[in-house]
Amino acid sequence: xxxxxxxxxxxxxxxxxxxxxxxxxxxxxxxxxxxxxxxxxxxxxxxxxxxxxxxxxxxxxxxxxxxxxxxxxxxxxxxxxxxxxxxxxxxxxxxxxxxxxxxxxxxxxxxxxxxxxxxxxxxxxxxxxxxxxxxxxxxxxxxxxxxxxxxxxxxxxxxxxxxxxxxxxxxxxxxxxxxxxxxxxxxxxxxxxxxxxxxxxxxxxxxxxxxxxxxxxxxxxxxxxxxxxxxxxxxxxxxxxxxxxxxxxxxxxxxxxxxxxxxxxxxxxxxxxxxxxxxxxxxxxxxxxxxxxxxxxxxxxxxxxxxxxxxxxxxxxxxxxxxxxxxxxxxxxxxxxxxxxxxxxxxxxxxxxxxxxxxxxxxxxxxxxxxxxxxxxxxxxxxxxxxxxxxxxxxxxxxxxxxxxxxxxxxxxxxxxxxxxxxxxxxxxxxxxxxxxxxxxxxxxxxxxxxxxxxxxxxxxxxxxxxxxxxxxxxxxxxx
Length: 480
Known about the structure:
alpha+beta; globular
């Protein structure tokens, strides 16, 4: 029988207090000093993270590294003001100095605001069988070579393969002036492979990746087979693809990675800080219809092993599943503790930060649209002239107006209900609220993409995204 464990099986409060060399009494003392100038609320975010990576290129491991990040961030809130300071030492005297600095920044006037405790629930979203910290670096070399070999064998046009393996493990301890003390150990493992193809004087490249909150047990031959198959899939169409004629047309979003458009063009606009400040196109629209009935848009922090999931967010709020859009109605923003206090609601567990040096802000986790009732083939068959897209790269979004543009790496023309010529190097241009309103069909094939998605919003956090096949009746396609 296999044994699963949440890192450090005892998983007790004392284990985390010992890591950071603090006592409950010291936390209470620093809390008192933090609020001494009249602050409404304060919290502590302790972090001990180990990072490791290896890069295989041209048949050899060309680089690798290991380092540890350790420290504590202290936040003080007073009305609309936030004071934040951090220290890379958890010595009591260093924490006192950081607390005084945060307090001085926050407590310079302003009205008070109240903060409510949350119900602490114990989740275990990423049990681990093989602890990354206990495995020597050279134990991963056979896997890197195996993946490289399988990729080269998959297509004789491949001239170069680059494989990257990275992992991290984070011990986190959080405490606040409400007396809540929470802790977590968060694993993350990622594998990325890039293949460079050459044919007839043309060069193409494609990348496949997997990333999960799991231990080293996900490294193995099955993963190598999966990635090798994916990285060569569709490469014939890449070499044949052309830029189509642009214009207004129907666009079918393929299941999976198309979720990045949902994340960027709609998800950010649902984050509560933008709405609290009136910067989002969706500000003040809770309870209003934003897309056709039957459509549900979710941000979920509870998907097992998912890159964006968390037993707790970075404010000590338990992970949860939040319906932003329910049956076409905007039902919730994504809240941290600050926005929850401002709106008079509960935090949705979306307070996230890059590390202890950063203040938490509302961020997405795993953002996706739930499945509908349509068959994907029927959706494509309903389009007389349009385009099917299934791989995106970078994009830009204006939160206030909702306007977006995304670069499409691959897709197909749709002609008379059939996928015909492959296309690439085009832009999809539209407006988030209008695109939601123009959805006319949702497939029954929801797929969450488990690549190495990272979201940047002043700071970077791991996320994931997903969609079923979706038909939007009218978007601008930028082509020839």
